[in-house]
Amino acid sequence: MATDSPVTYPCSLTLDVPFPDARLANAALQALRVDKELSALVQRELSAVDSTLKVQYKATTNRMLRVAVNSFFDSLALVLEVMEQLDVDVIEAKKAQEKTG
Amino acid sequence: MMTLTKKHRRIALGCEGSANKLGIGIILHEGTSLTTSTSTVLSNIRHTFVSPPGTGFLPKDTAAHHRAFFVRIALQALASANIPISEIDCICYTKGPGMGAPLTSVAIAARTLSLLWNKPLVGVNHCVGHIEMGRAITGASHPVVLYVSGGNTQVIAYAEQRYRIFGEALDIAVGNCLDRFARTLEISNDPAPGYNIEQLAKQGGRVLLDLPYAVKGMDCSFSGILTRADELAAHMKNGGKGPDGEPFTPADLCFSLQETIFAMLVEITERAMAHVGSSQVLIVGGVGCNERLQEMMGAMAAERGGSVYATDERFCIDNGIMIAHAGLLAYETGFETPVEESTCTQRFRTDEVLVKWRK
């Protein structure tokens, strides 16, 4: 191809994911931003502002956007479940409960 | 970075999910020198994603399985080990090789644990995990390693801080050949297709069907054998007869396939043993559970005045404890994976790892 027109990403989605505190929002950010997007047709930006995880997805088509965002939600759900069940304070509370129970 | 002499007890949690097994294990290393350190398995929990007969496990479904079971398995591993989080030194995870989405799903959870618990991460090569666990469990000192699973087939020998690949499958892994043939015969995948082929093969033996024997120097090839086995299976379903004019059964097919592919593995292993001057064979990986393979390898090793070392299904099938063990060995030499570098990779050669914990 002689000249490539720059790729545009007309389809976009913005998510603000609230976390209980900034520590958790930052942990989610660090865990989720490591893996690159699988497709060049999708662009992603992640950042943490106070206790909110800000997610910006842009894609060339709605289908690509849906696929990418669905996958992101699967990963986010895992991060949340790990935080809910395996954080230090949760484990310690469980152990204390088992001792007294 | 901590040095060995400062801490007598080191504990690692390891997470594995490169194929359809999700495994989390916790290991304890005690001792203050590389040569006198002992390893203890504190917990080793695993859950396998089994797909229906006639199908294989696809990356998306496998990753979904790992995500769904991670917290449950982690809690079981912690409860079984019965140690406080404060005693864990590092979180180890499988960096590769393996299937992309499953690897990443486990890495995301491992990263989260590392950040929540404030513990360093250690990325581990899956093959090195198998080798180090095999060494630890069997005590084999200088073996040629045959690593055989659904995803890998390699003949390995240690030299100068690398696990060198002497020979390997050129196309598909031997376990992949078995798994795909199980689909052809619609054999159950529970607990594992290879296990069910092994049981069915025990009912065979009346006739050895003709399958191509594909050893190429130090390497071997399995896709042609699979094609031929599939052809024979179709022939059998159409009422075809075997070489002796009699009908043959799935058991005959399983028997013939095993005899052929295992003989090939024995040949390339023996070739490596001759090169390296070793009489010991250590078999690791899921296919290493196969008793017929162990028997055939044992006969060859005995002829050379040596022996075969193998582990049981707790350790030869993919598991988290091998990742914890190999990861902790690396961590003890000062190795760590910063979270921003904790990616996964589908291709990760065994000899890419610098084995700093050995001379």
TrEMBL record, chain A:
<dbReference type="InterPro" id="IPR015419">
    <property type="entry name" value="CTAG/Pcc1"/>
</dbReference>
<dbReference type="GO" id="GO:0005634">
    <property type="term" value="C:nucleus"/>
</dbReference>
<dbReference type="GO" id="GO:0070525">
    <property type="term" value="P:tRNA threonylcarbamoyladenosine metabolic process"/>
</dbReference>
<keyword id="KW-0963">Cytoplasm</keyword>
<dbReference type="GO" id="GO:0000408">
    <property type="term" value="C:EKC/KEOPS complex"/>
</dbReference>
<dbReference type="GO" id="GO:0008033">
    <property type="term" value="P:tRNA processing"/>
</dbReference>
<comment type="similarity">
    <text>Belongs to the CTAG/PCC1 family.</text>
</comment>
<keyword id="KW-0819">tRNA processing</keyword>
<dbReference type="Pfam" id="PF09341">
    <property type="entry name" value="Pcc1"/>
</dbReference>
<keyword id="KW-0539">Nucleus</keyword>
<protein>
    <submittedName>
        <fullName>Transcription factor Pcc1-domain-containing protein</fullName>
    </submittedName>
</protein>
<dbReference type="GO" id="GO:0005737">
    <property type="term" value="C:cytoplasm"/>
</dbReference>
Automatic annotation (TrEMBL), chain B:
<feature type="binding site">
    <location>
        <position position="318"/>
    </location>
    <ligand>
        <name>a divalent metal cation</name>
    </ligand>
</feature>
<feature type="binding site">
    <location>
        <position position="198"/>
    </location>
    <ligand>
        <name>substrate</name>
    </ligand>
</feature>
<feature type="binding site">
    <location>
        <position position="147"/>
    </location>
    <ligand>
        <name>a divalent metal cation</name>
    </ligand>
</feature>
<feature type="binding site">
    <location>
        <begin position="147"/>
        <end position="151"/>
    </location>
    <ligand>
        <name>substrate</name>
    </ligand>
</feature>
<keyword id="KW-0539">Nucleus</keyword>
<dbReference type="GO" id="GO:0000408">
    <property type="term" value="C:EKC/KEOPS complex"/>
</dbReference>
<dbReference type="GO" id="GO:0046872">
    <property type="term" value="F:metal ion binding"/>
</dbReference>
<feature type="domain" description="Gcp-like">
    <location>
        <begin position="44"/>
        <end position="324"/>
    </location>
</feature>
<feature type="binding site">
    <location>
        <position position="130"/>
    </location>
    <ligand>
        <name>a divalent metal cation</name>
    </ligand>
</feature>
<protein>
    <recommendedName>
        <fullName>N(6)-L-threonylcarbamoyladenine synthase</fullName>
        <ecNumber>2.3.1.234</ecNumber>
    </recommendedName>
</protein>
<keyword id="KW-0479">Metal-binding</keyword>
<keyword id="KW-0819">tRNA processing</keyword>
<dbReference type="InterPro" id="IPR000905">
    <property type="entry name" value="Gcp-like_dom"/>
</dbReference>
<dbReference type="GO" id="GO:0005737">
    <property type="term" value="C:cytoplasm"/>
</dbReference>
<keyword id="KW-0012">Acyltransferase</keyword>
<dbReference type="Pfam" id="PF00814">
    <property type="entry name" value="TsaD"/>
</dbReference>
<dbReference type="GO" id="GO:0002949">
    <property type="term" value="P:tRNA threonylcarbamoyladenosine modification"/>
</dbReference>
<dbReference type="InterPro" id="IPR043129">
    <property type="entry name" value="ATPase_NBD"/>
</dbReference>
<dbReference type="InterPro" id="IPR034680">
    <property type="entry name" value="Kae1_archaea_euk"/>
</dbReference>
<feature type="binding site">
    <location>
        <position position="194"/>
    </location>
    <ligand>
        <name>substrate</name>
    </ligand>
</feature>
<feature type="binding site">
    <location>
        <position position="126"/>
    </location>
    <ligand>
        <name>a divalent metal cation</name>
    </ligand>
</feature>
<dbReference type="InterPro" id="IPR017860">
    <property type="entry name" value="Peptidase_M22_CS"/>
</dbReference>
